[in-house]
């Protein structure tokens, strides 16, 4: 159940379970188009070196990829290659913590990561993300479809308690996780409409992170361009793009999610992607969704159901 203290999520239970988590694999660098280097943890499919399935699993706001290790390990043990990048602006030693260079850079980084894997022609890429990472998974996947990227063999999207929009029907208005600086946001939004990006670097969003969860990897705040580049452009249009290209979607959320109304997720997704499969997991909260074995079981059960007659080009 939600922590009733001053923080948005139940960090008490989350941290108490930490000793049972799988140890994260080491970060491996990959090169980006701007000649910078970012890190990704790779979990090879156990006993199945020829597996076609590659899951790109994205972490949530303020965090890095370490907390996804248990989920990634379980999926790898079931025969799926899993890759968990530290998004730009996050992790142990980012060039600029909480910031990126421009609004599309996170999408470009994911493209560069996938291309760096040198996947075989029959590979099947599934993009997944938790919380804000789910929003980025939706944004990125829709962009791949719209740009008809034949070199990115996208075959599915998995949304784990995804952030969609601050006015989406499933958003809890009393969530205390993100602390927006409204005046700064309004100024940046207005300037962006005028084609001015001079203030895109300023911090506009902070996170209510308890001291016991903070460490050298924690990202306390986001710039305008990181926040904007992480969120869906328009979640409804993005979902319609996935539906148009017949890209399957699995969405999972915990019954006790503290940031979103679990029972409203389906009404956010299915009007725009009628085939999206939405499941509410009993007794699970927002952070627990990323670490519980039930999440891995749901994903493993869903993956074999995806069509095997798709070619490598979405749509």
Automatic annotation (TrEMBL):
Keywords: Hydrolase. Gene3D superfamilies: alpha/beta hydrolase (3.40.50.1820). Residues 52-264 form the Serine aminopeptidase S33 domain. It comes from Cobetia amphilecti. InterPro entries: AB_hydrolase_fold, Hydrolase_4, MAG_DAG_Lipase. This is Alpha/beta fold hydrolase. SUPFAM superfamilies: alpha/beta-Hydrolases. GO terms for molecular function: hydrolase activity. Pfam families: Hydrolase_4.
């Amino acid at each position: 159940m939600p922590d009733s203290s001053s923080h948005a999520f139940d960090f008490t239970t989350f941290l108490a379970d930490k000793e049972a988590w799988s140890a994260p694999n080491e970060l491996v660098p990959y090169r980006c188009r701007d000649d910078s280097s970012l890190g990704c943890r790779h979990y090879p499919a156990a006993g199945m070196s020829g597996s076609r399935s590659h899951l790109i699993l994205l972490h949530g706001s303020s965090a890095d990829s370490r907390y996804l290790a248990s989920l990634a390990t379980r999926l790898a043990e079931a025969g799926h290659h899993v890759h968990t990048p530290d998004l730009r602006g996050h992790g142990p030693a980012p060039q600029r913590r909480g910031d990126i260079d421009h609004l599309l850079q996170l999408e470009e980084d994911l493209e560069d990561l996938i291309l760096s894997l040198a996947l075989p022609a029959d590979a099947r890429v599934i993009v997944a993300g938790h919380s804000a990472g789910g929003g980025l998974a939706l944004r990125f996947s829709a962009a791949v479809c719209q740009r008809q990227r034949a070199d990115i063999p996208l075959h599915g999207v998995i949304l784990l308690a995804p952030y969609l929009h601050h006015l989406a029907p499933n958003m809890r208005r009393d969530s205390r996780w993100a602390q927006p600086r409204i005046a700064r946001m309004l100024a940046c939004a207005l300037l962006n409409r005028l084609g001015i990006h001079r203030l895109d670097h300023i911090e506009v969003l902070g996170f209510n992170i308890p001291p016991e969860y903070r460490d050298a990897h924690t990202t306390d705040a986001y710039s305008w361009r990181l926040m904007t580049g992480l969120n869906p452009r328009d979640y409804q249009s993005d979902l319609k793009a996935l539906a148009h290209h017949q890209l399957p979607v699995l969405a999972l959320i915990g019954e006790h999610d503290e940031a979103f109304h679990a029972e409203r997720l389906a009404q956010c997704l299915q009007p725009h992607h009628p085939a999206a499969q939405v499941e509410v997991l009993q007794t699970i909260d927002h952070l627990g969704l990323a670490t519980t074995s039930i999440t891995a079981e749901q994903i493993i059960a869903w993956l074999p159901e995806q069509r095997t007659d798709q070619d490598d080009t979405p749509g």
